[in-house]
């Protein structure tokens, strides 16, 4: 048995360090932060990825994995993501997965910008030509004819070539992906040195990345991925809200709700609820359109179409304004966000459904108008023409008398003698006096 008080100071220090070492080691477990890049590259997606890279830096993660399946997206959002990747002190791995996924268009640029490019089997990448040159088509673009198109193409070529040279990947194929919209499978991409690794899943990927050295903003880093903890980076409420709000179809529906809500409030002032809901929906739609690539000519045509619909209710144009409004509405909806960027167009099915509903409303309105036009007049001076009543007394020699019509008693005049109780028919009205004739008298016998 011994006393701690008799131990030398050096021995106490060694004992303390020995006991604390396991505790320190337990707190330094490295993590791989997985960011799910599933869908179009949008401003909301860019913000989510940038926040994920910042979170990885704050928690000193070993690496970030961008698990990607994207058809492409907006150039501005793509460049924000690439800037964040290039400035990240934490190594970034872009992994095209699961099998069947793709990294098309903007996804190809992001893949080239990453420290490590990886793909799962049966995936593909490429088709990175700027959509302005594609004209919304998926076919191979023709050689640019205008100076503006040549600027766009040359800028895209220089951009992806610079990324390829920075990451020591195949620059010739990168240029081909932009100029000719070329695509590659995962096997071909590995053979042509477009990607660095093929892996079946994330654990397989981490196993293949162990002891690999990459260059980051802070210099060379050797990855230690053996026994690493995989952590998924979740979207917060703000990112989820922005993702939904900046969906083109959602923004389109909000626009319609906003406009019609304000129109209904104008029709029935004091309702409050339609106006409040309409104002909120319209502001949200305008915010979304501020972020999205909106064709303002399309937006103007939609507004014109709705104005024509409303005008039809005040100006009897027999459906002409409504039909013109429907045409303007459909054309405006189609070109509203027809940028050719995958994931950034309004659903044609939704446009068709709303257009059919509007057409049915127009037809129903026209049918009701024609029906009302053919219906007998039920008010005003014309209401009594042709109606039948009963004489309340014998008409005098000068043709004056009284009749009961629609439970009302009227002064009347007849050129033909009429006796009390005899049925009469109204010929016309002169002020407060009705001109009548015997009901059985033909019109040709009346002078």
Number of strands: 16
Strand content: 15-25%
The helix fraction, in percent, is: 40-55%
Largest sheet: 6 strands, parallel
CATH structural architecture of the largest domain: Alpha-Beta Complex
Secondary structure class reads alpha/beta
Question: What is the CATH homology-level superfamily of the largest domain?
Answer: 2-enoyl-CoA Hydratase, Chain A, domain 1
Low-confidence stretches: 1-7, 10-27, 133-140
- Give the CA-based shape: rod-shaped
Question: Gist?
Answer:
This protein is an alpha/beta fold. It contains 15 helices and 16 strands. It folds into 4 domains: 212 residues, 2-enoyl-CoA Hydratase, Chain A, domain 1 (Alpha-Beta Complex); 47 residues; 77 residues; 65 residues, Beta Barrel (OB fold (Dihydrolipoamide Acetyltransferase, E2P)).
Q: What are its keywords?
A:
5-stranded mixed barrel, alpha/beta, 15 helices, disordered N terminus, 447 residues, 2-enoyl-CoA Hydratase, Chain A, domain 1, 6-stranded parallel beta sheet
Q: What secondary-structure arrangement, pairings included, does this model have?
A:
Blueprint lengths: L8 H18 L4 E8 L4 H16 L4 E7 L5 H13 L4 E5 L5 E3 L1 H8 L2 E4 L4 E3 L4 H4 L12 H20 L4 H9 L3 E3 H6 L5 E2 L3 H8 L3 E4 L2 E4 L6 E5 L3 H9 L2 H20 L5 H19 L4 H17 L7 H16 L12 H27 L13 E4 L8 E6 L2 E6 L9 E8 L2 E6 L9
Parallel strand pairs: 1-2, 1-11, 2-3, 3-5, 4-6, 5-8, 14-16
Antiparallel strand pairs: 6-7, 9-10, 12-13, 12-15, 13-14, 15-16
Helix pairs in contact: 2-3, 2-10, 3-4, 6-7, 11-12, 13-14, 14-15
